[in-house]
Amino acid sequence: MANLVMTEDETMLADAARGFLDKSAPVKAFRDLRDAGKTHDAKMWKEMADMGWAGVLVPESAGGSDMGHAAAGVLAHEMGKTLVVSPFLSTAVIAATALRNVSDARAEKALAAIATGDVTYALAVDETPKFNPEAASMVATREGNGFRLSGKKTFVVDGALADRLLVLAKTDDGLTLFDIPADRAGINRTAQNMIDARDSARIDFDNVEATGEDVLGQVDSAMSVLKPALEAGQAALAAEMAGLSAGAFGMTVAYLKERKQFGTVIGNFQALQHRAAHLWCEIEVTASAILNAGRMLDEDPDNATMAVSLAKARATSTAQLAVQEGVQMHGGIGMTDAYDIGFYMKRARVGAEWLGDYGYHAAQVAKHRGF
Amino acid sequence: MQSNQELEGFRIELRDWLEANCPAEMRGGEASEASICWGGKNFEFESDAQRDWMERAASKGYTVPTWPVEYGGAGLTRPQEKIFKEEMNRIGARSPLDSFGIWMLGPALLHFGSHEQKLHYLPPIARGEIRWCQGYSEPGAGSDLASVQTRGEDKGDHWLVNGQKIWTSYADKADWIFALIRTDREAPKHKGISFLLINMEEAGVETRPIKLISGASVFCETFFTDVKVPKHQIVGTENRGWDVAKYLLTHEREMISGGGQGLSGGRALGAVLNESLGEGQEMETTLRADAMRCEVDALAIGLTLERYKDQAEAGTGAGDASAMLKYMGTELNKQRHELLMAAGGSDALEWDGPLGNRPADWLRTKANSIEGGTSEVMLSIVSRRVLGLGA
Ligand SMILES: Cc1cc2nc3c(=O)[nH]c(=O)nc-3n(C[C@H](O)[C@H](O)[C@H](O)COP(=O)(O)OP(=O)(O)OC[C@H]3O[C@@H](n4cnc5c(N)ncnc54)[C@H](O)[C@@H]3O)c2cc1C
Ligand SMILES: Cc1cc2nc3c(=O)[nH]c(=O)nc-3n(C[C@H](O)[C@H](O)[C@H](O)COP(=O)(O)OP(=O)(O)OC[C@H]3O[C@@H](n4cnc5c(N)ncnc54)[C@H](O)[C@@H]3O)c2cc1C
């Protein structure tokens, strides 16, 4: 069983990240970005890359900091607290993990470009409103030595900003994962106007050419590359959502100590105290599942599926509780756009759906527990 | 720190020992309150296997694996303890011995007791020879525990104890009681309590069983009439018993939270539910959804228990973990038993029916969120001490 204490390095990483983010990416930065109609801050991503965040899962041989999945979770958690916008999950976690599971020179080069922050990625898997990667129906038809990709993807997170796409498509005898530039002929991207004001796109593929070189891993066996990538993404997203919960909870408790009604601060009412305490308990329990998932991915990645699903399920239910209680306990002001708590609610809803919702992951846990 | 090689050596040795010593009857199956081995002078073993298992485990210190060897334990380190748990779970071994001595008094004595007291009281607990009960609650002192009124008059070499306790679990079966006794009636309520150890065979101690809604009779009223308690039978300092009481409660709460079946790496709820549905029966949709949620929460709470132990070991523990664990664990356990009842359908409605203890166990779990401090009290502790809300 993994050791469930933050290491000294992880604690230092969290402190350093917090220091940077409080200065460069408080919730206000997100608000400004949204108000300007932007979903990406390229300059900040470069700064994050310079600190080794973009290369958190990239081997040192390819210029990465190679800190591991638990460390990636630490970073995601800190970013979640202040709703930091960045391609961290899609690029530094998901794409890097996929590439890392392919050991060829091309992948090594791609990893190096991730670590420097020069290239961003998005994962194009979903085709229906619910996450179900195994059911991908987009086709890649054989043509000569290569393929032609036709079909539609939706909810491609960071899909409008990304330089490259990881695309899942059906081939003759299974699923295949392609790594192609996002501006290749026949690719048509439509940015989605997301409730959380983050980047996402619907993408049409119209007879898009892909060569054998573009295949990540083996033809017809996408899962050997995609599964670890998805699990890494799910664990880091869970960590981000746990950070989001902590952020919303911190705001809420501060408000309980400040807002006065009936001649006293509302935090003196036991009806609110007990609900806040319950929420804190849920957050504590979820934190264990998050750390465990990071440890399992680092120490025993072939057997991490249940730990990851446990983390994503718990993170989802906890974040949803945190934002609902957060808005409710703020009363009328929590409903206003000028106040930040609503941002947390909207991000939590998006996070809940991305890479599998509560039901998807609870079912994974049940399957691993034999029912 | 032990090397991985040393730890693996320990695992192999332990595995062999368990294989040779844990009787088949003591493996597998859902743990039930009725099958707990409590030990003590009055305990009736349910089988030879139960006795053998307790005695063999005690001889290795495995009834209290983390206690120091000199006090009857095996002196396991935290990494060894994890392995111990994993190996026990692997074969579905039942706990060889459980008792209030192990869960509550032991930790308090290890922390507050003198060396002589530890040598005197701990080994008989580890060997299952002496069974303890807990004399905290009184008719007028439940959640507001510090208002206990049972008093001890200072008579020089002893206290003369008079008063009444209530809800004293297994007082009629226990050999000794640890009790909160008011030894200073003038002082503020938290500052006049002493933590005394009292022999239940002493003249003037009387118990009267109370029947529970589960039909069992596990708790009692306990009366003290002019009971002499020698001065050396105090733990900690006179009138500072509240410190001991609180420390003990943190252990009690952790125990109640994790004692919940299924939290300690036990069997999956869904698997148990499937079994009671019978051949070919599918789990109905809402039951399955509830079972999944329960399983997710159980696994996460189990990990939290481990995380806090790891933190304690690393010296980075957060203070009031036990209140949180107690609240989350007991509420979950109640939920789990609701689902077990639902899966059992009408078979679960008979005392000692096709599903045996299931209805009694279900009713028993309702006390989990009351005993050792209620869920509401746990939430108040968290909101006051952790969140800094309220006065
Ligand atoms: C969309 C919207 C439309 C509205 N329209 C109107 C309108 O047309 N006209 C109008 O006059 N008003 C309107 N309101 C205002 C609404 O009635 C108030 O927001 C509401 O009464 C709560 O007051 P508050 O916002 O000051 O919250 P607060 O009173 O500050 O409450 C904050 C939190 O503390 C809790 N709380 C407060 N006191 C206690 C207590 N004693 N015990 C336990 N918990 C407590 C509350 O339940 C809440 O969760 C509207 C509000 C919204 C959001
Ligand atoms: C099966 C069982 C075994 C037990 N075994 C033992 C034992 O071995 N030894 C022992 O000493 N005791 C034992 N107890 C007693 C147990 O510790 C008490 O029942 C418990 O502390 C609650 O006290 P009470 O029953 O007086 O309830 P009360 O304190 O009267 O509480 C009644 C209700 O009011 C709520 N409440 C009280 N104060 C507050 C507050 N400030 N805010 C919000 N809600 C509040 C409570 O949560 C509860 O829901 C046992 C109890 C049970 C059920």
Tally of individual helices of chain B: 11
- Give the termini separation of chain B: 44 Å
Rg on CA atoms of chain A, Å: 21 Å
| Count of helical regions of chain A | 11
Biggest chain pair interface: A-B, 39 and 45 residues
Helix content of chain A: 40-55%
What small molecules accompany the polymer chains?
flavin-adenine dinucleotide
Topology of this protein?
The complex is a heterodimer of chains A (371) and B (391).
Chain A: H1 8-24, H2 27-35, H3 42-50, H4 69-81, H5 88-100, H6 105-115, E1 121-124, E2 139-143, E3 146-157, E4 164-171, E5 174-181, E6 187-191, E7 200-210, E8 215-216, H7 223-256, E9 260-261, E10 264-265, H8 270-299, H9 305-330, H10 341-353, H11 358-368
Parallel strand pairs in A: 1-4
Antiparallel strand pairs in A: 2-3, 3-7, 4-5, 5-8, 6-7, 9-10
Chain B: H1 4-21, H2 48-60, H3 78-90, H4 100-112, H5 115-126, E1 132-135, E2 151-154, E3 158-169, E4 176-182, E5 193-199, E6 205-210, E7 219-230, E8 234-235, H6 241-259, H7 269-277, H8 285-314, H9 321-344, H10 358-365, H11 375-386
Parallel strand pairs in B: 1-4
Antiparallel strand pairs in B: 2-3, 3-7, 4-5, 5-8, 6-7
The complex binds flavin-adenine dinucleotide (2 copies).
One flavin-adenine dinucleotide is lined by residues 133-137, 142-143, 167-169, 219, 367, 370-374, 376-377, 380 of chain B.
Could you characterize the architecture of this molecule?
The complex is a heterodimer of chains A (371) and B (391). By secondary structure, chain A is an alpha+beta fold. Chain A folds into three domains: 112 residues, Acyl-CoA dehydrogenase/oxidase, N-terminal domain (Butyryl-Coa Dehydrogenase, subunit A, domain 1), CATH 1.10.540; 95 residues, Butyryl-CoA Dehydrogenase, subunit A, domain 2, CATH 2.40.110; 146 residues, Up-down Bundle (Butyryl-CoA Dehydrogenase, subunit A, domain 3). Chain A is built from eleven helices and ten strands. In chain A, strands 1-4-5-8 form a four-stranded mixed β-sheet, covered by helices on one side. Chain A has a four-stranded antiparallel β-sheet with strand order 2-3-7-6, with no helix packed on it. A two-stranded antiparallel sheet of chain A has the order 9-10. In chain A, strand 6 and strand 7 form a beta hairpin. The longest helix of chain A has 34 residues. Chain A is globular, with a radius of gyration of 21 Å. The model of chain A has no long low-confidence stretch (mean pLDDT 97). Chain B is globular and about 70 Å long. Chain B has a four-stranded mixed β-sheet with strand order 1-4-5-8. Chain B is an alpha+beta fold and 391 residues long. Chain B folds into three domains: 109 residues, Butyryl-Coa Dehydrogenase, subunit A, domain 1, CATH 1.10.540.10; 109 residues, Butyryl-CoA Dehydrogenase, subunit A, domain 2, CATH 2.40.110; 143 residues, Butyryl-CoA Dehydrogenase, subunit A, domain 3 (Up-down Bundle). In chain B, 44% of the residues lie in helices and 14% in strands. The relative contact order of chain B is 0.09. Classes of the chains: A alpha+beta (371), B alpha+beta (391). Chains A and B meet through helix 8, helix 9 and helix 11 of A and helix 7, helix 8, helix 9 and helix 11 of B. The site of one flavin-adenine dinucleotide has 20 residues of chain B, from strand 1, strand 3 and helix 11.
